[in-house]
Hints:
109 residues, mainly alpha, 4 helices, 0% strand
Amino acid sequence: MKEEQLKNLMQKSTVETSDNFTDALMQQLEMLEETKPIQLISFRKMIAFSVASLVIVSLIAYQYLAPFLSELSGSVKVTKTPIFAVCLLVCLLGLNYMLRLQQSYRKLN
């Protein structure tokens, strides 16, 4: 477009707001103020929670799951190391999920 056409178009155009524009805007602002932001758990707390849950799950697995699996398998004795490895893997996957969730929440804000 040339400058003259642009000037003519700008002069012809007018901006009009609806009758309830300010009311709708104020309602939206009130709704934004009412919502409380979600507080994220810090990384250190997440690690501490993961380690504590790993210890608790491992102790429970050592007490109940290892003898149960040994009875099911018959002559093969199930050691505690594979059970600990599975518990560790589950805890690490849970920690990874929480970190990704926290990272995606920060991107949204």
